[in-house]
Amino acid sequence: MNIVKSNSAVAIQTMGRRKKVFNFGKELKKKNNITTSKNTIYILGKLYQVYFFYSNTKVPSIELENHHIVVILPNKYKKMDINLILNTLTEKFYDKIAEQEIERAMEKVRLMVGFAPEDFEIKRLKDMAISSCNATKKEITFSPDIVKYDRNAIEYIVLHEFCHLKYKIHAKGFWQMIKKYMPNYEIYKNVYSV
Ligand SMILES: [Zn+2]
Fold first, then answer.
1. How much is the pLDDT for 36?
2. Per-residue pLDDT for 129 more than 60?
């Protein structure tokens, strides 16, 4: 699936501000071949409604508006399970913006704590884990799916893994270190189990 117009968080924000290209409500009434199920995607903590249209096109295209995403699919996709399409689309969106967002958060945390891991990787982890740290190798892995959360939460997840480079387990020193750099960490502590 091609993501035609939105390939970074910056693009998403820019596009969110741009003028709408068509009257969406009017379009919805006109089309009778749309899927109006309750499809949603979270991107950087913001909820987007996803609307699917089928059209006589060869490749899928995606338009990101202020509060919704319009997906135009070739007619041949009609046979396909919409949840499968939505899941693929969601993963593509996350993959596209993960690199930029995670690097941004890592740079912020690096300046905060004064060190960084030897290496890091962005890939989906087993058991839906959102991140992990190999303290021995000094390597951190983040799932691209963390970009569903807002930037403050992403920074907490990054700081958490950086602190594991110094403290392997969630002992007192570990939480003291987190608190030093993020005094309000408790609002994230139980929400993101990392
Ligand atoms: Zn941890």
1. 52
2. yes
Same domain, 104 and 179: yes
Cα–ligand 1 centroid distance for 194 (angstroms): 4
Tokens, residue 19? 């003028």
Domain containing 34: what range? 9-93
Ligand 1 centre to CA of 177 (Å) is 12
| C-alpha 151 – ligand 1 centre gap (Å) | 18
User: What is the per-residue pLDDT for 5?
Assistant: 41
The residue type found at 10 is: V
Q: What is the pLDDT of residues 72-128, one digit of tens each?
A: 999 999 999 999 999 999 999 899 999 999 999 999 999 999 999 999 999 999 888
pLDDT of residue 18: 42
Mean pLDDT score of the chain: 83
Ligand 1 centre to CA of 164 (Å) is 7
How many distinct structural domains can be found in the chain? 2
Q: How far is the C-alpha of 111 from the C-alpha of 116, rounded, in Å?
A: 9
The CA 47 to ligand 1 mean position distance, Å, reads 27
Centroid of ligand 1 to alpha carbon of 107 (angstroms): 20
